[in-house]
Amino acid sequence: MISRVADHLFWLGRYLERAESTARALAVTRNLSLDGELRPRQAWLPAVVVFGEEEPFRARLGEAALEDGEAVQRYLTWNDDAASIAQAIRGARENARSVREVVSLETWEAVNELNLWLAGAGGDAFERDRHGFYRAVREAVQRTLGVVHGTMLHDDAFDFLFLGLMLERSGQTARTLDVHHHALGGAHQVVETALWLALLRACSGFEPYMKRYQGEASAESVAGFLILDARFPRSIAYCLGDAAERLGRLRTAASDPRGGSLTRLRTLLAWVLDEAPPAVGTEKLHDLLTRVVDETHAICHEIGAELLGVQASPPAGAPGPAASPQ
Q1: Does 188 score more than 80 pLDDT?
Q2: For residue 141, is it within any domain?
Q3: 221 partner at 20 to 30 Å CA-CA among 106, 114, 120, 244?
C-alpha cells in the first residue's frame, strides 16, 4: 500500500473517533450542567480542555465564555478552526473520498451521508433538539464503523483505519479521565458520584461498569476500569493493545527501527499495565494519564514519519490533513 493511501485511512479512523467522542462529551456535559449542582464553569471548562481547545477558545471568545454552555457547544460543534464535530466529519469525508478505490462503496456512502446531513438538516437538528443532534452524530459514526467491519476486507487498509481510531480513542479516554479527575476536587460526595457516573457515560462505559462492579461508583474503581479493563473496548489498555497488534501486522519488530513506533507502543502498553494499579486513587494518576496522552501523540508522529510518508501527523487536538497529497 502506498503511503498516501495509508495516511488517508489512518486519519479517516481518527476523525471518525473524534467526531463521536466530541458528540458524546458534549451531550454528557450538557446533562450535567442542567442538574443545578455544578457551576457553569465547573461543568464546561473540562469539555474545552479535553479537546485541547482551552487557549484558542479563550483567545477567540474570552474568559467569560467558559461560563456559557451555549458558546462552548457551538464552538466545539461548528468551529472550522477547532477540534469540532463539523471539522472532524468534513475531515473524515475528505479522507474517505481520497481513497474511494480502497474503502467499500458502503463505507464511502455512510461517511458522505453523515457529512451531507450535517451540512443540511444537522443545523436545524442542533437548534431544535440538542440531545437528539448529539445522539444522531454518535449513532451515525457507530453505523459507519459497523459498515466498515461488515463490508471491507480485513487487510492492511482495515488495519490502518482502526490503528488511527484506536490511538485517537486511547488519547481521548486518558484526557477525559484526567480532566474530570481534577474537576472533582472539593465536590460534595453526591455530586462527585454523579460526576464519576457522567465520566463513565462520556466513555460509553456506564453499563459495562455496572455489569462488572454492580455497586456504587468510586474514584478508584472507575479510574481502574477506564484504564485497565481488558474487556472494555474504550479502556486505555484495550486500545493500546489493539493498536499494537495492528501495527505489529503492518510493521514487524525486525523492521522497526530501534525505539521506533512499534517498540514505543509496546513499551507504553507494558508501562501502563505495570504502573496503573498503584497510581489509581493517588496523585500519580495525573502523571500516568499525561504520559499516555504525550506518548500516544508521539507515536502518531512516528507512524506518520515511518509509514505514512509525512514529516509528522498533526497533534491529537488539532485538525489533520483532509486530502492533501503526500
Answers
A1: no
A2: yes
A3: 244
Query: What is the pTM (predicted TM-score) of this model?
Result: 0.89
Number of domains comprising the chain: 1
Nearest to 191 by CA among 32, 54, 304, 56: 32
At 170, list the grid cell.
486511547
Q: Which domain holds residue 75?
A: 3-306
Amino acid making up residue 38: L
Average pLDDT, the chain: 87
CA distances from 123 to 130, 141, 145 (A): 10, 17, 23
Give the C-alpha distances (Å, rounded to integers) separating 35 from 134, 170, 194, 216, 217: 18, 29, 10, 20, 19
Amino acid (1-letter code) at residue 93? R
Are 306 and 257 within 8 A, CB to CB?
yes
| Residue 312 in domain | no
Rounded to an integer, the average pLDDT of 197-221 is: 85
Answer yes or no: is 49 within a domain: yes
Contacting residues for 203 by C-beta, under 8 A, at least 6 apart: 24, 173, 176, 177, 226, 234
What φ, ψ does residue 131 adopt, rounded to 5°? Answer: -65, -40
What is the tens place of the pLDDT at every residue in 70-87? 999 999 999 988 889 999
Contact predicate 133/127, CB 8 Å: no
* Contact criterion met (CB below 8 Å) for 35 and 299: no
In whole angstroms, what is the distance from residue 134 CA to residue 28 CA?
Answer: 10
Cα three-residue angle 12-17-18, rounded to 5 degrees: 95
